[in-house]
Amino acid sequence: ISLTHDWGSRNNSSIRFRKPGLYYNPANEHVATSYNYDSRVRNVLTMSSAKSPKLLIPDTGEKTTIVTTQQNDSLIMFVKQRYDKYPDRMLLDRRSNTTHRLTTLNSQLENQNWGTGQLFTYVVDGDTVQGGILLPADYTPGHPLPVLTYFYRHYAHVALDFRTPAIKDNMCFPWYTSRGYAIFLPDITFEIGAPGASSVKNIEAGIRALADMGIADTTRLGIHGHSWSGYQVAFIVTKSDLFSAAIAGAPVSNMTSAYGGIRWGSGRSRQFQYERYQSRLGVSLWEDRTPYIENSPLFFADDINTPLLIMFGDKDSAVPWYQGIEMYMAMRRLGKPAWLLQYEGERHHLSSYPNKLDYFLKMDEFFSHFVLGAPAAPWLQ
Fold it and tell me: How do beta strands 308-313 and 245-249 pair?
């Protein structure tokens, strides 16, 4: 018996009860949340055994999240958001079937070149995958833009989220869209034993699709990642000359040396994450050394032609910062364009505001010079 009358499968959606551990009573109507795997939109619905689920809030293509419910779910406070829409508080009164807006925040967005976010599809090895794209508000279709790629693993859904501007150690999306960049947010599907090659394949396919759509100027491309995606960036530039500039925050560069270390924060061995977890190599170093070498950017640094900026805190408790030293020293020895920013006393993510501001400005100067062709800042000369 399908409790949802096959609504989930028909709409390619999952359904979850609002209250964890709720005992399902088929005689009652329950408030639940849904997630559509095609649109990446979350919504609110009611369900009972007597009828198919019904959306309580109209689907406008915006991400909907319940904040709280009161009076046996007759009052539901929720937010709706999208990249260019601040998540204001709304109140649904089910007794009168009316919706009231409770807050009007960040109205200054109306005067900003904030941009818009959307999903698009492209093909990787015969499979259709989704990516997200953020566009400047004044974008004219058919006019290619400089594109910055930012990602981790599954990141397309971020195109639907409002992002508060902040000075930190990752990309501030509104800052770059307001300055004329588009931002590509890919989903990455990894193959066991080949995380590096998987990254190259997925991201290159997405960029080609954006070029075919008339969005991407393939002569003006940048890429940035941190931690796991920092590793991916460092690997990608060993196999691809597609990007004009690359920034790798806290990347692993040598999986053979990183494999034998520990995570300084927890004291755990790093071996598990290379064999079975995030790196997905599938074997130990002694069962097969090949994937450890083939997926390590360090061993292919002589193939890099892309200017690479590496960032580390010297107290990083997740990725030992000597991984950055190994990559930087290899590139300098080979005469490759590389810069290493080392922030004293910082851990895996920057916490000091002066350091975050310094990195924020240097990221912008790096992309401005190598992607847009602006004069080089003194530290780049």
Answer: parallel
